Amino acid sequence: MPFNAVSDITRSIAPHYIPFRPPRARVRSLSLALVLASQFSATKTSSMSDTRRFKATDLFEFNNINLDSLTETFNISFYLSYMSRWPNLCVMVNEDRQTPDHPSPMGYIMGKSEGKDKDWHTHVTAITVAPSCRQLGIARKLMDYLERAGDADKAYFVDLFVRPSNLLAVNMYKRLGYSVYRRVLGYYSNPHGPDEDSFDMRKALSRDVNQQSIRKNGEQFTCKPEDTMF
Ligand SMILES: CC(C)(COP(=O)(O)OP(=O)(O)OC[C@H]1O[C@@H](n2cnc3c(N)ncnc32)[C@H](O)[C@@H]1OP(=O)(O)O)[C@@H](O)C(=O)NCCC(=O)NCCS
């Protein structure tokens, strides 16, 4: 089943505009909606999937995605704060069964914007796809979406954390143009054993003309978890 690119992202962004966001952010969201409209109208094929903003009620439906050892499940306030602070960076893909009351979640991405000056960037907090929906290009589309959102937001780069042992994901990110920026020692705490390091992977966006946000041989650079706070 081919992944059908985001079809109603503009409908989902504009009408659900969060009133307390500052005017500058509103303009960013609307311009992003226009960027996305042109992108996704070009790739729309049949109506086999429906991509829209992540909603609070998705938390009742996403167990088929989150019941996976490599997918973090956070507390409810974590998801709600993302949905309210970065609504345009939290996207859910549902199987389109023509029954909107009973969506079948296929995958989602959650991101945020943070940092100052040259560190202003888009961060991928979570990306996951239901086991039954993998290798259909969903993650690639979601990552592409977030990168476009970062470009529209004038971010210098996109970054993410991934376990070095999650080779599938590390290789996927490399294939998508990401490289290791540094190894974060003991980033993933483990109450039953040794903590696990993380790769901090980055991809420079178009604003970073000189590619200063990335570097070669990033695996050789280490830092502590507290050094990754922006
Ligand atoms: C990692 C994950 C998000 C990939 O999602 P996906 O929708 O299956 O990925 P896509 O179909 O978009 O594939 C993107 C690229 O990754 C590669 N890839 C994905 N799954 C692969 C697999 N099982 N074997 C080899 N390559 C694979 C593909 O080659 C593809 O590149 P290509 O299109 O150029 O061939 C998914 O496996 C997942 O949810 N894993 C558990 C959660 C997780 O690890 N998240 C990342 C945490 S940082």
Short structural description:
It is built from six helices and eight strands. By secondary structure, the chain is α+β, with helices and mostly antiparallel strands.
Poorly predicted parts: 1-31, 33-47
Number of helices, counting only DSSP H or I runs of 4 residues or more: 6
Strand content: 25-35%
How many β-strand stretches?
8
What letter string, H or E per element, gives the SSE order? HHEHHEEEHEHEEE
Helix/strand/pairing class, anyone? alpha+beta
Instruction: Give the CATH level 1 class of the largest domain.
Output: Alpha Beta
Overall helicity: 25-40%
CATH architecture of the largest domain: 3-Layer(aba) Sandwich
Mean pLDDT: 83
The total tally of domains equals: 2
Globally, the shape reads: globular
Briefly note the CATH topology name of the largest domain.
Answer: Aminopeptidase
**For the terminal residues, how far apart are their CA atoms?**
40 Å
Please explain how this structure is put together.
The structure is a single chain. The protein is α+β, with helices and mostly antiparallel strands and 230 residues long. The protein folds into 2 domains: 154 residues, Aminopeptidase; 75 residues, 3-Layer(aba) Sandwich (Aminopeptidase). The N terminus is likely disordered. An 8-stranded mixed beta sheet has the order 1-2-3-4-5-7-6-8. The structure holds coenzyme A.
Topology overview:
Elements lengths: L8 H5 L9 H21 L5 E5 L9 H4 L9 H10 L4 E6 L8 E11 L6 E9 L8 H15 L4 E6 L4 H9 L3 E10 L7 E9 L17 E2 L7
Parallel strand pairs: 4-5, 6-8
Antiparallel strand pairs: 1-2, 2-3, 3-4, 5-7, 6-7
Helix pairs in contact: 2-5
The structure holds coenzyme A (COA).
